[in-house]
Design brief:
It is a single chain. This protein is α+β, with helices and mostly antiparallel strands. About 25% of the residues lie in helices and about 30% in strands. A six-stranded mixed β-sheet has the order 7-2-1-11-18-17, with helices on both faces. The chain has a five-stranded antiparallel β-sheet with strand order 13-14-15-12-16. The longest helix is centred in the last third of the chain and has 18 residues.
């Protein structure tokens, strides 16, 4: 039965939730997203800080993305025409980055949508055929979509969709400790990327990415195993260790950093179950995310679009 103009609440305003919302809103549904973050970014976040040498930015989540699916490739082509993404050859022939920062892609997707930031949804509640998002809104919704990492999706889904929750619980994400460091001068590492070097899984000269510039800035991601073993360590100790690992790759000693920040990603890289998206049309609850396809930005976008397509097909 066709149900035009549904009101739909989405928990999570990352790529998956936003891609889903964009398609649903374009089809005439009323969509509102709720995200616990302070602003657009999620795992495509960019951190901006002041330093004695000037302001500096770090893409401290996803470093780049690829576009292999034709639908996503078409979207990326559109973003490139708007100059919000550009190729990054240093990371590979098919690597793209947001410009001038990774989070501009998320900001662009969120711009035409109703998004409430700093909104932590404690629980989902169903009453008289409507959905309520406890702790963030008194408004009822005809449908609800969970667009969070698997570890956060499971507790929200379990009371209403135990099978969906079980899928989420079967997809634990690998953690990642990240250091953001800046220097007053270029450090003695010739390449802009360091891969698989000791405890470093990936490190990149953020200031060397297209559209950046500014002072010398590096993002250092620890390996998943090291991050897991040191997950509860203090920030200072973690940054010290990652700086030492970066120094081991330099041909000269590193100068003292003018910025040093640590960030702990508890849910950095999903282990996917490859269901694409989840939806129960009878109760109108669903889930999207990269954990339902593959741990890539592209997969999160595809998951969101896939669920929107299912909803639209079921309500024609």
């Amino acid at each position: 039965m066709k149900t035009p103009g549904m009101s739909i609440g989405i928990v999570g305003a990352g790529i998956a939730g936003l891609a889903c919302a964009v398609r649903l809103q374009a089809a005439g549904h009323s969509v509102k997203l709720f995200d616990k973050g302070r602003g657009a970014g999620g795992r495509m976040a960019t951190r901006r800080v002041a330093s004695p040498c000037g302001d500096v930015a770090f893409d401290h989540g996803a470093q780049f993305f690829t576009a292999r699916d034709p639908h996503f490739a078409a979207a990326v082509t559109g973003w490139a025409a708007r100059k919000i993404v550009t190729p990054w050859p240093s990371a590979g022939d098919d690597a793209w980055v947001g410009t001038p920062a990774m989070n501009v892609v998320v900001k662009a997707l969120a711009e035409p949508l109703a998004v409430e930031w700093n909104a932590h949804v404690d629980a989902l509640r169903r009453s008289d055929g409507s959905w309520f998002l406890d702790s963030v809104s008194d408004k009822s919704f005809d449908a609800v979509i969970v667009a969070t990492p698997a570890e956060q999706a499971g507790p929200l889904l379990v009371a209403h969709e135990p099978a969906m929750a079980a899928m989420a619980q079967a997809c634990p994400s690998a953690p990642c400790w990240t250091a953001m460091v800046a220097f007053g001068e270029r450090i003695a590492i010739a390449e802009d990327i360091v891969r698989d070097a000791g405890i470093i899984g990936w490190a990149a000269r953020n200031s060397g990415k297209p559209g950046r510039g500014g002072i010398e800035a590096w993002v250092i991601h620890a390996t998943a195993d090291w991050s897991r073993d040191h997950l509860e360590d203090g920030e200072t100790r973690v940054v010290d260790a990652l700086l030492a690992a970066l120094a081991a790759e330099a041909t000269q000693p590193l100068p003292a950093p003018v910025v040093r920040i640590g960030h702990r990603w508890r849910y950095a890289r999903a282990r996917a179950v490859r269901h694409g998206a989840l939806w129960n049309d009878a109760t109108r609850i669903g889930a999207v995310g990269d954990w339902l396809l593959a741990p890539r930005v592209e997969s999160a976008w595809l998951s969101g679009r896939m669920l929107a397509g299912r909803i639209l097909s079921a309500n024609r």
